[in-house]
Amino acid sequence: MAAYVITEIDVTDPVGYEEYRRLGPPTVAAYGGKFVVRGGKSEVLEGTWVPKRLVVLEFESVERAKQWWSSQEYSVAKRVRHKTAFTNMIVVEGA
What we know:
By secondary structure, the chain is α+β, with helices and mostly antiparallel strands. It has a single domain, classed as Alpha-Beta Plaits. It has helices at residues 14-30, 62-69, 72-84, and strands at 3-11, 34-38, 53-59, 85-93. Strands 2-3-1-4 form a 4-stranded antiparallel beta sheet. The termini are close together.
């Protein structure tokens, strides 16, 4: 079953975050993932949630998504993201 990694990102260092934007995508592709949403304009339809930036990745399974997230390949990019942004990230099964 497909899985989606949904990440809410508040970039605190836009210049430093550019390195993450360069490093992250090749690691996603290496694990068979693809970007579904990558920081496009969003609009609140209900509630009070106003994320600054949203990213949605699609993987073939939750297991594959977790392999990517915990991989050596992604670890460098992850460290850069932790230094340059605050994030909330979940993985969810999808159709």
